[in-house]
Amino acid sequence: MKDLRLDRQLCFAVYSASHAFTRFYKPLLAQLGVTYPQYLALLTLWEEDSLSVTAIGDRLLLDSGTLTPVLKRLEALGLVSRTRSTTDERHVIVRLTEQGAAMRHVAEGFPTRILDASECSEEELDSLRQALLGLRKNLNHSTA
């Protein structure tokens, strides 16, 4: 007989951990005045500015229909600008504003807060991250 107890399900452990991250990040993101999806878009642009919507979506694993409202809200907050590409008008380029770039300084403290709250070592968290990335990859290439 297969074990279907909730506390034995990997999917529930990942799901509930995701909710714990969301709760943990809420006061941190309040300092920036952004939501978690907006923060992920900012992380992408802090790593490499002036990206197309498609490139940001590829990095975040989001389609443009999901990502565009996030970017529009960041633009309304004055954190990014969106302009049509001069070489291909079908592409929208997203750039950090000075204010959006400056927010990185506040966010630089977030990883230390996560590390401290997790009560794990950097190596343990990196191992967990690598395992989750491998799990995601395998699930994406599998059929149910």
Polypeptide structure, described:
The chain is mainly alpha-helical and 144 residues long. The chain has 2 domains: 33-104, Arc Repressor Mutant, subunit A; 109-144. The protein is 65% helix and 8% strand. The radius of gyration is 18 Å and the shape is globular. The chain starts with 9 loop residues before the first helix and ends with a helix. The relative contact order is 0.10.
For the largest beta-sheet, the strand count, sense and barrel status come to: 3 strands, antiparallel
| CATH topology grouping of the largest domain | Arc Repressor Mutant, subunit A
Total tally of structural domains: 2
Helix share, percent? 55-70%
What is the structural class? mainly alpha
User: What is the spatial order of strands in the main beta sheet?
Assistant: 1-3-2
CATH class of the largest domain: Mainly Alpha
